[in-house]
């Protein structure tokens, strides 16, 4: 799915080439640095411009607000994420998805960045919207793996693919943000296996269909 079909035109959302693309890349990298190092509260457009060696006027004209800058950063992250893996089985595909999430959430830079954005999303509406867009894009990227499993008759035909994908990452984010338990590959593999077992049992059938299993 192309991002432009999901992302309305806003400051910083245009995808031009040439020098403008280089400026955008430098600014987004600087914004990512600040978020990872200091958190959302310290994100300032003037400081980002300085770090990116870009004129303040350019940054203010293009993004306008910190919230718009974070939204563009999340959109870029979604576009740059590793594409889904197709192994020929639902367990193989979801295990690949879970391990990708696990690697991301245990990378020191990435985990600091995600924690900063998630924390900001609890009180900043614009950031919360951008974060939802980010995860919608990633869920939509992986949902076809579940549809392929439906087509192979591995799981019930009325299974909701998006719910299955969400079920894979939810326990991993719980470990990261709530329990503080070790987030290792074994945890990722268990999350994938549990999602597959649930899908096969009809747990993720669309609303109104679960009782007919």
- CATH homologous group name of the largest domain: Tetracycline Repressor, domain 2
Question: Can you give the helix content as a percent range?
Answer: 55-70%
H/E element sequence? HHHHHHHHH
CATH A-level architecture of the largest domain: Orthogonal Bundle
What's the end-to-end separation, in Å? 32 Å
Helix-strand layout with pairing:
Elements: H1 18-38, H2 45-52, H3 56-62, H4 66-80, H5 90-106, H6 108-121, H7 125-151, H8 161-179, H9 185-200
Structure overview:
- It comes from Micromonospora deserti.
- One of its GO terms (molecular function) is DNA-binding transcription factor activity.
- Keywords: DNA-binding, Transcription, Transcription regulation.
- Helix content is 68%, strand content 0%.
- It is mainly alpha-helical.
- The protein folds into two domains: 3-78, Homeodomain-like (Arc Repressor Mutant, subunit A, Orthogonal Bundle), CATH 1.10.10; 82-212, Orthogonal Bundle (Tetracycline Repressor, domain 2), CATH 1.10.357.10.
- The protein is elongated, with a radius of gyration of 19 Å.
Which keywords apply here?
single chain, mainly alpha, Arc Repressor Mutant, subunit A, Tetracycline Repressor, domain 2, 0% strand, disordered N terminus
